[in-house]
Request: fold
Amino acid sequence: MKADVHVLTLTATPIPRTLQMAMSGLRELSVIQTPPVDRLAVRTYVMPWDPVVLREALLREHYRGGQAYFVTPRISDIPDIEKFLREDVPEISYVIAHGQMAPTEVEERMSAFYDRRYDLLVSTTIIESGLDIPSANTLIVNRADKFGLAQLYQIRGRVGRAKTRAYAYLTTPPERQMTEAADKRLKVLSDLESLGAGFQLASHDLDIRGAGNLLGDEQSGHIKEVGYELYQSMLEEAIMDAKAGGLRDEIRPKDLSPSITVDAPIMIPEDYIPDLDLRMGLYRRLNDVEDKQGIEEFAAELIDRFGKLPEPTDNLLRLIEAKLNAKKACIAKIDVGPRGALVTFFDDKFPNVAGLLAYVDKLGETARLRPDMKLVITRAWANPSARLHGALQLSRGLAKAAG
Reply:
């Protein structure tokens, strides 16, 4: 609509994509951490449905002169809640509100609750935003495992809006097993009950649900097509380019990612480290190693934690060392086969031409430098392990020749 309009977005819990944009530098971010004076944090309890505990919670609020909310995800659950209230907590009066009622009826019931003619409001998630009733300071959420993390945080924000201590009871069905994601959400919410925890909670939400699609309409979800690490790298590069006004430095050796093709098994096997998240974390750490000493320390840690290195993992460490050497020598690609290797230099240039010629001369008849600046090595390597070892030795020699 317009190119020169500034936009300020204010939110208690940014959705994953908005938070991702802020953390990656696409948007600027400010955090308000200071709560209002005398505001107390909401005490949060995650528990299986227990009629005795819930009766005590509602009566405590009633006898201290306050009001309460009872929130459920589905309208079909409301008759069961009414039955519980009639049989177990007959001392308190309640009113029901949900989205299928006429707007005027909902407004009348909300106004009656606001005027304190009822002790309890039984509703669906229609109360999650925009409702400010300072006298309501107890919240019970039925089937809390059905709600999203930011949604639960918004609903919890309906209580504790004055100087009185508020309580939130997030109930789960005692007879059913929760999903792993639901269990994570409830654990995060019970752990983060301090004031101003919205930003940390949104960070957990980003971690659980994924960052969504920057160029599409998905507000959450994992970037499976590209891969998260590559996506972040591409995004960072694009942001740096935009901030520099399109002026890019030429690629330096440390920015290179040499490709080494060899048919040896190169991986951390599942039977060596069964946990997928742990394996992915180790791959990321290994990708950040900058020298041979770092590789040796990483190998020592693996042996100490998981036992003797299997052959594929040992091959992986040797390949990483070869890639580090290739970076120093500005090598873009090394193709290794049974009869030798073909080395392609980045931009068809070598940092030290004299050193390269001396290295080729030293190798004798087994090495030939072609006019297109590709280095051909003629060598018979009988098996994949020998080929990988040959690539490592070749990368060492070229790194040394590059100075």
Q: What stands out?
A: The radius of gyration is 31 Å. DSSP finds 13 helices and eleven strands in the chain. The first strand starts at residue 43 and ends at 48. Residues 16 and 206 are 5 Å apart (CA to CA).
